[in-house]
Specification:
39% strand, Thrombin, subunit H
Length: 147
Amino acid sequence: MPELMRSIITRLRSVVGNRRRAKRYQARLPFSISLLGVKPAAESAIPRNLPQLEGYTRDLSETGLALVVPTIRIADHYLTGAGRRLLVTLRLPSGPLALHVVPVRYEQLDEDNTERGYLIGVRIEEINDADRARFIAYLQEQNEKQG
């Protein structure tokens, strides 16, 4: 039932209008994503990081990203859980940059779609100044290309 409701809301949003304020640019960039604030299980005395998940962007803006991932979980943790914070390492042509993001919506991609998995909309919460400058420069390049 939650998937049906999410699908209805997505379709309604396309009819009623888009509330996004920042201009979005289509871009397919690879990224890795990991959970922030979650510690791995204490199976051993050797500290380990939680696994990462690989995916790609569908579009991006100064304030957020649309991420396509093959699954909605990393280990036993949902990427879209309440209060969840994520670390996205976005691979720009100029090199990787780190973004702390918060999921704001997600939907399972349709089976008849060429993309499979999940689309997760995230809001950028934190980015260091140097990475922000490179990110904005990349968006400006996209603006010039996409007109």
